[in-house]
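2024-03-11 09:14:02 DEBUG pipeline.ingest accepted 1 chain
2024-03-11 09:14:02 DEBUG pipeline.ingest length=597
2024-03-11 09:14:03 DEBUG pipeline.predict start
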Amino acid sequence: MRLRSRILPVSILVLAFFAAVFLLAPRSEANNSFQDPPAPPAGGGQEQPQGPTGRPTPSTDPRPYDRVITKEAKTDEGVFKIHTIKDKIYYEIPKSELDKEFLWVSQIARTTLGVGYGGQAAGNRVVKWERKGNRILLRNISYDVVADPKLPVSRAVHAANNDTIIMAFNIEAFGKDDAAVIDATRLFTSEVTEFSARTRLRARGFDATRSFIEKTKSFPTNIEVEVSQTYTSPPDLTPAGGGGGPQPQPNPFAQGMRAGTNATVVMHYSMVKLPENPMMPRLFDYRVGYFSIRKYDYGMDEQRAAERRFITRWRLEKKDPNAAISEPVKPIVYYVDPATPAKWVAWIKKGIEDWQPAFEAAGFKNAIIAKEAPSKEEDPNWDPEDARYSVIRYLPSTIENASGPHVSDPRTGEILESDIQYYHNVMNLLRAWSFIQVGPLDARFKKLPLPDDLMGRLVEYVVAHEVGHTLGFQHNMKASGTYPVDKLRDIQWLKTMSHTPTLMDYSRFNYTAQPEDNIPLEQLIPQIGPYDKWATMWGYKPIPGARTPDDEKKTLDDWAREQDSKPYLRFSTAGSEGSDPGENTEAVGDGDAVAST
């Protein structure tokens, strides 16, 4: 009531003031008549267009190149030229790159304590640059609905899926071969909805006055830009928010911004050219646990809107197509974050390359490689946020977890890069799990802290699991219920089959084994199992002669039917179409949970 009683008289006064001004204004013919524009400035010259105030408006016509890209410009050559002049950046876009599709990847590179983590993904989308007269448009491309462009229905699909304009730019000048020069600064120093980290940070505002470009780099197929951006979260003054009373102490490892705080984050934006020769996609099958992309294809000859799903996978092609096992033309490479404590580096590399036997089942040798990040002397341009590189990111966090996201081409499902999030405190979880579940089976578990060689092996296990996700694999929660319980104490079985058919289950350490079984450490920890090898074969093995995804369908179905005679190859997980009561988690031998426990 106090607030309303103070505001009401002011509003009445304001209305009265404007009413008085209106009433006092003279109503003569002169005031309503058209006035001639002022004469052009002396000295001749072209007459300038007039704005609403009668002043000349700035011309939007392109200017001479050397008046825009001056001698003080610092230029970086790449897929686009990037010119830096003081606090502005200009993109010089070749005609050949207009209307080409790029994947725009947004990541948090560095952050304020308590507001997310460096290395976290903030989104990705397909974009293209398009010229319209003397303007360049940055458009968002969606592949949710498609149709063969040769079919009449493609017109309706195009009309229903018009590409959104993210931002429009005036062409400032033209470079060599009619390359358009634009001022791209505000693309990064203002809040652009499609690229904003607001949702990830749980922010409520953006302050452009505290946002600026840190660095830019152009490469032959990609552009990398780092920007300091300041997000705000004004105080919550509602009674539920506590008003001006004492606020709780901040949690330094919370995921989002608190009311009444600001956060300056360094955002890393990668714009990577999508393959001009798209990979042939492989059809999804709910019997095999791959992540997938989906789209509605209105060009299919079905009496409905047909959903098409394709698995996400890396592009692997044999150097020798006729060899049963060949090295790939381009292997999958993961780098270890240079911020990783040195004693865990070798174990993380081993967790990456644990998947090599699975790819051998698909016909590839050395398909997945682990590397340490190069030093500044070895490669001054290497950057973990560069979307050309897949990195195991080491994050300082009390979160007891790790995650394995990946970025894929929405046209085909081709995985283009991944940044695995490895949180420091997952070691605390591993220590607790192993001590409780298999403490009696190895003397090294009986004393805390665990020795480095033992903790390293547990780190390897976590990394291998997350790498599996980035190869395209979902969890397979059904797997741990498909082995006979007595086999989990059989050392010969365990050597070849592991105690769960897949590393992608939530079956942890083999607590079914007993001290008298004398099971070694390697058979107590989940390994690459028969399902992993079989599923890798199903998703990655080339099918000679196939020219379209539908050409592969019969072969893929024949492979999937191997599950009929081998139940341990079956897949199901929470949310999958084939989900069933066998999807128990955090259990070993859950086909007979009583006997196992």
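2024-03-11 09:14:41 DEBUG pipeline.report The first strand starts at residue 74 and ends at 76.
2024-03-11 09:14:41 DEBUG pipeline.predict end
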